[in-house]
Amino acid sequence: MLKKRIVAALVVRDGIVVQSIGFNRYLPVGKPDIAVEFLNQWGVDEIILLDISAGRTGQAPDYALVRSASDRCRVPLTVGGGITHIDHIKELMHCGADKISLNRVALSRPQLMADAAHLFGNQSVVGSIDAAYTDLGYQVYDYQQRKLLDRSPAELARQFQELGAGEILINSVDRDGSYRGFDLNLISSVCNAVTVPVICCGGAGSAQHFVDVFLHTSVCAAAAANFFHFTEHSVTTIKALINRQIHVRHETHADYDGSRFDVAGRLLKKDDQELENLRFIRIEKEII
Q: Taking 90 as the threshold, does the pLDDT of residue 48 lie above it?
């Protein structure tokens, strides 16, 4: 059985990683290359770098930013934002991207997705879909025009697969930055519509949210952005807790047996006597 993947999403605005809330509020976090380095050390399985500035201003991808991030990245790196031409994709691959993510451009120029899949292989193309719930059900959301489209995410996911996308990234606008958990109904509708792997994003706020989405949907990977930035030991503790119920890649010896966590999955302080005893135990530094 293939192990489920834990993915970190880095939303970049004007060259800075930001915390996105509902696709309309952005709080600064830090430099992308530093965030990538930390995520590598924490043992994340993949990283998705999404430059939301490039797409909105019409400028080309920030190749220097991608090159700097890829230099520190030791896991598969997906890059999206500002891609409008096949030459953009070629240059991003030269800068170190392993996959490219196509969102809005694939709606207006679907041939670009087909061409990318033909040149670089289906495994290198991710079809990204933003969706929101309405009275008519789930609808695709155009983040640039800030409006809903008369299409369902499941229908668009099928089209992306037919064009050659090797993976689908489904992001919930309603859950973005909410910490309320993944939208299981949205994710299931997309998973049931395609046969390629699906990555979900939007709403992660605890380790239990990852367990829930893996147990109750057929999603292959779960991504988070804000949660990994602001929760101590986030990737390591999530994997340790998830691994008790779901098969994930967990390369550290830290299984946190006997440790206590709060409802958000944050590691709680041990008793003073326990901490005193730990002073006399030698623990070699691990390289993940």
A: yes
